[in-house]
Amino acid sequence: MGAYILRRLLLVIPTLFGVMLVNFALTQFVPGGPIEQVAAQLEGGGDSLGNLTGANSDGMPTDSGGSSYSGARGLPPEFLAELEVEFGFARFICEPDYTGSTAVRVMARSEQCEKEMISGTERFLIMMGKYLTFDFGQSYFRSISVTDLILEKMPVSITLGLWSTLLAYLISIPLGIRKAMRDGSSFDTWTSGIVIAAYSIPSFLFAILLMVVFAGGSYFQWFPLRGLTSENWAQLSVFGKVKDYLWHIILPVTAQMISGFATLTLLTKNSFLDEIKKQYVLTARAKGLSETRVLYGHVFRNAMMLVIAGFPAVFMGVFFGSSLLIETIFSLDGLGQLAFKSAVERDYPVMFGTLFAFGLVGLVIGLLSDLMYVLVDPRIDFANREG
Question: Where do the TM regions start and end (predicted)?
């Protein structure tokens, strides 16, 4: 088992490298880089995409007039050169007398220094070298490191992802087992209708429905409209803080888990139905074992294999799938909104830093899922697997 875990951990590096390479390459073809964004804002043009006329192969916009940035015609070239160096798109090559002793802003204006553009390949390798030491750099547009920014937004995403996944499993597994045991009954029929309806309703639409009905939209004002805590949260007692926190998360967590709950319920039911029909179940019943003993002593472990196999997909789907819409509707400032804003602003350190961090989390969760296989069914031996 130790050798298998080591192999899987070693595979994390090339897998992450491939994911990062594909996404980095794609950004080179997206018009409007971070420097264009800054130029557009300083020029009063808003979004750089409105002023953009084209982009070169390195993702650096160009125009027909020879300027490097179509939205920056009124900005000093020295300022743009400094931005290129600060954002890592270029470096200054200076005479020996100036190297290492002159400030960047002075070097940008010095005739002794020449700007040298850094290729996309070199920028990618530099970025990955830093990421291997978990140095994600600093946001282009916020005076904060990417790590601190992620940690700042993490509580919202942890709340939505963790509680939604936990509740989905706590509800779906017992319900799926019950539906399998009463397959074809009226209970199975009307619960299937509820499950199918839950699966069909988009989470954001269900979130709006919850808000309209229970958050003072048109009917009841039982829950708050926004945020994870109240304004007076710091002054509350420990019990009051817990109560206030749970009061705030009920609606967003319910909206977040709705689709995952439906999928997991049907998966559990079908898995149990498949196992119940097998020969070993008939043999166990013929020996006089109680239905509870047959179900939880024999069927449960085998039936749960598919459910456990789907855990990484369910967790990552709930954690990231609809977080942006849920965060927007309930005014929660989490990783979903951070990822969206960083993509719009072309804040590359935040974009790639979060992609690397959560890509790593996803791969580790996949490994944990395999280890849970062994916990559920000791007959599985990953140590003898090839490759």
Answer: 160-177, 189-215, 245-268, 303-330, 350-376
Rounded CA separation 368/373 (Å): 9
87, 127 contact by CB (below 8 A): no
Distance separating alpha carbons of residues 111 and 113, to the nearest angstrom: 6
Q: Which residues contact 119 (CB under 8 A, 6 or more apart)?
A: 58
Structure token pair of residue 22:
């594909």
pTM of the model: 0.70
Range of the domain at 37: 31-131
Find the CATH number of the domain harbouring 377.
1.10.3720.10
Name the token pair of 376: 């559920």
CA atoms within 13 A on the CB side of 1: 12
Residue 287 pLDDT exceeds 60: yes
One-letter amino acid for residue 301 of the chain:
R
Rounded (10°) CA dihedral 145, 228, 333, 331? -170
**DSSP designation for 63:** -
pLDDT tens figures, 107-118: 444 455 677 777
The whole-number average pLDDT for the span 34-54 is 60
